[in-house]
Amino acid sequence: MFRHWLVYAGQPARTAVGHHAARHHHLPGPPHMKAILFDLDDTLVDHQHCYRTSIAALQTQYPALQHKSFADIEKLYVQWLDVLHAQVLAGTLSLPEARRERFRQIFLACDAPLPDDQLDEVAQFQAEAYRTAQRPVDGVIPLLDYLRAAHLQIGVLTNHLLAEQVAKLKQCDLEAYVDVMISSEEAGVPKPDPTMFHMALNRLNCEPQDTVMVGDSWQSDVIGATALGIRALWLNRYEHTCPDPTLATEFESYVPLEAMLERLGV
After folding, report:
1. Residue 114 is part of a domain; what is its CATH number?
2. What three-state secondary structure class fits 156?
3. Could you tell me if 191 and 217 lie in one domain?
4. Could you say which of 132, 148, 171 is where a domain stops?
5. What is the structure's pLDDT at 31?
6. Total structural domains in the chain?
7. Of 6, 52, 119, 126, which has the highest C-beta tally within 10 A?
């Protein structure tokens, strides 16, 4: 259970890189760090592994999806996930509606349109395959163990619905590490809007200079955090080009732990 949960619950183409030398741009760390903020999907929880596993299961279960390659289905999945998730965050589409529409478009692209009742079945099948594939990103557990032993507070800021993200933390045995979790659903706006960052700082009783943000999204996590004076670490597991090495410390893996602690400055 989140340590502040009872107090605050009612308030408002990707290929992992190999093991080569990481591109580290170390920026100065705060002298008296009190808290680490993390994004959730593809920062703490291995979202890409989950959806890729679920796509493979879908292609096995539904032969119509075998008319396209795995890469083509993945491209469609990510495309429609991004488009429809933005509508979920905006409150114009429910999560079940978004899932149904995502698979409507994927099956249409395979020349195999499905009625709504079958789309619901597909969506439920994929959601269960995604859930059972959930796992922490490699190296996350040892890092969180260390931070907890060092008495540092841990917050999670996520652009999603709260119940969905709490379930991920539980499935991955991460819930006990988290002091505060802020969702865009609760905040009313997604990162990089400053609202979620301010909420986290208030609940953790921290100032920007006491805090570090770790995330995989340059726009949502790095831009959002640094705009408020929060130092940022950018997790870049898929060899994207760093937009500005002076703005964030770039790293590719939490492993080894010693290198990660050096980046954090703890």
Report:
1. 1.10.150
2. strand
3. yes
4. 132
5. 54
6. 2
7. 126
Helix, strand, coil percentages in the chain from 3-state DSSP, rounded to 5: 50, 10, 40
Three-state helix/strand/coil letters over 105-155: HHHHHCCCCCCHHHHHHHHHHHHHHHHHCCCECCCHHHHHHHHHHCCCEEE
DSSP bridge pairs for 180: 155
pLDDT in tens, 85-108: 999 999 999 999 999 999 999 999
Considering the domain architecture, whether residues 36 and 168 belong to the same structural domain is answered as yes
DSSP annotation of 41 reads B
In angstroms, the CA 210 to CA 36 distance is 9
H/E stretch holding 11 reads: none
d(CA 230, CA 208): 5
Question: With contact defined as beta carbons under 8 Å apart, do 58 and 221 qualify?
Answer: no
Q: Do residues 164 and 253 share a domain?
A: yes
Is residue 265 within 8 A of residue 44, CB to CB? The reply is: no
Are 124 and 180 part of one and the same domain?
no
Q: Are residues 103 and 28 in the same domain?
A: no
The C-alpha atoms of residue 254 and residue 247 are separated, in whole angstroms, by 19
Alpha carbons 254 and 40: distance in angstroms, whole number = 14
Residue at a domain's end among 74, 100, 132: 132
pLDDT tens digits for range 198-212 = 999 999 999 999 999
CA distances (Å), origin 5, targets 39, 81, 185: 18, 29, 16
Beta carbons within 8 Å of 142's beta carbon, 6+ residues apart: 254, 257
Structural domain range at position 240: 5-46+136-264
Read off the tokens for 107.
Answer: 């099956």
180, HSE (Cβ side, Cα atoms, 13 Å): 24
* pTM for this model (two decimals): 0.88
- Cβ neighbours around 170 below 10 Å, total: 13
